[in-house]
Request: fold
Amino acid sequence: MKITFKLYASLAQHLPPEAAGGNAVQIDIAPQSTIADIIAPFHLPMKLVHLVLINGVYVGPEDRATRTLNEGDVLAIWPPIAGG
Reply:
């Protein structure tokens, strides 16, 4: 099944080449794939996986190993952001 996978800020460099110039790709995932399953092949440093949203709804760290996605979902991930 297909989902949209978005990485923001410094994490975007972990997307495949077809995402060059953007921050999102359509990917095929197996049914019952968890967030952890989906991000593993992208080799994201887990200390930088800070804000995780599925369809705009926050998913806490305690649920990322078990929360599954559905056809057409959007998985978006942000690193920690500092400002001033």
